[in-house]
């Protein structure tokens, strides 16, 4: 059976087991290009995200590891700023391209699991319109590249299941290894794929020496970050425990599964569930379905963040594309894709105000509850204004106090903003005890001089200074809600202990 596509005849499905349908290159690349263009079109709105400011600071201290992530994203920040300059758009170019590549890989995965051109187009469109992916690839973050590495690993894995080409184990190991240099989260996927092979009746594949070679390659690529952690008191492990203590627990466990409907998007729920069913009911792809179900259970029980599972949905979208395609071609005459395309684009349109900065900055919510629905948008607002407020406090000080001024912040966002914007207002580089800023120490901070402190409790500052005077609170443009709005600004004098003695108690991870 063939289906007409314009004036070409395109097979509706692979002609024989193991034979792939032709790749529908033009629409798939068009969807990927549209995704990238959408991300870049709004990339310069608002401003840097607090994490991006932190990554810029990390890029000025390149290392093989950091408290809260391996080295990849700071290295990307260093590369893009040196090649393209320090702007939100330059920093967000590679994440947008990563998202476009993931869209193409989703289509290729649909092809691998039995899909013809309809399945490929639908899988690509699902990947391009899912709210989680639209929001994630807007920013430079570990999550953006993590999703891409998951997508790439799953594509190689399904191709390995289909073809049995043993050399693909090395490709899988390389992707996992590089992924571990971005975010340790992909290690859970590697474990899940092993469990999927066991549960799916493919345990013998794990005895293949090529599989062990792939695992060894992944470990070798991960080694630099492990060595950094070994030399820094396993800081990333401590950070992980701290985050789990803050964000895990019963509440996170109870909300993990419902939150997946937000991650995928309400419009794509049927697509996701049908894709899982297709993979589970086909013996070749059953390990992928088993891996997803294991991760869903594991992340639920451990109270993980909902987006940790996001990368797995590329495979389910591929399966959903095959399911939808078979329903369409089973009708006489075969149905078109217009209904699915319209539905997915409608879902994207509804999600845009919550995922991308398409509204004017001042249209963002001022209340904390609704503002926290998407903290990533609010986290891109108000950083130059925060620095201007700190600079205004500094300019009111006598010249002798400004000469050796110290700026001490309670979070890396404020510290990163001051490091980026503060020099033009005569501010020094900030010091902070938050995450990797603590490991860089109080470099350049003079003892016994005046300090401006931001977002630190008065009781703590009084352990270091005899005089802690309120100097204002952080304000945002249009009083838009951000996590920094209302943070105290202090002027501190009469230092009682040196920075070297005070620094051990300044550390806080989170």
Can you offer a commentary on this structure?
By secondary structure, this protein is α/β, with parallel strands linked by helices. It folds into 2 domains: 25-357, no CATH class; 383-506, no CATH class. Helix content is 58%, strand content 7%. The strands form 2 sheets. It has a 5-stranded mixed β-sheet. Strands 1-2 form a two-stranded antiparallel ribbon. α3 (72-84) crosses α4 (88-112).
Furnish the topology, listing elements before pairings.
Elements (H helix, E strand, L loop, with lengths): L1 E4 L2 E4 L13 H17 L8 H10 L12 H13 L3 H25 L4 H13 L1 H6 L5 H22 L4 H13 L5 H14 L9 H22 L4 H13 L2 H15 L4 H12 L5 H17 L10 H17 L8 H18 L12 H4 L3 H4 L4 H13 L3 H5 L2 E4 L2 H10 L9 E2 L3 H5 L10 E4 L3 H4 L3 E9 L14 E8 L3 H4 L8
Parallel strand pairs: 3-4, 3-5
Antiparallel strand pairs: 1-2, 5-7, 6-7
Instruction: Work out the helix count.
Output: 24
User: What is the rounded Rg?
Assistant: 25 Å
Q: Please estimate the helix content.
A: 55-70%
Main beta-sheet annotation: 5 strands, mixed
Shape: globular
pLDDT below 50 for ≥5 consecutive residues: which ranges?
A: 1-17
Mean residue pLDDT? 93
How many beta-strand elements? 7
β-strand amount: 5-15%
Q: What is the terminal-to-terminal distance?
A: 57 Å
Secondary structural class: alpha/beta
How many separate structural domains? 2
Provide the spatial order of strands within the biggest beta sheet: 4-3-5-7-6
Comma- or semicolon-separated keywords:
alpha/beta, 7% strand, 510 residues, 7 strands, single chain, 58% helix, disordered N terminus
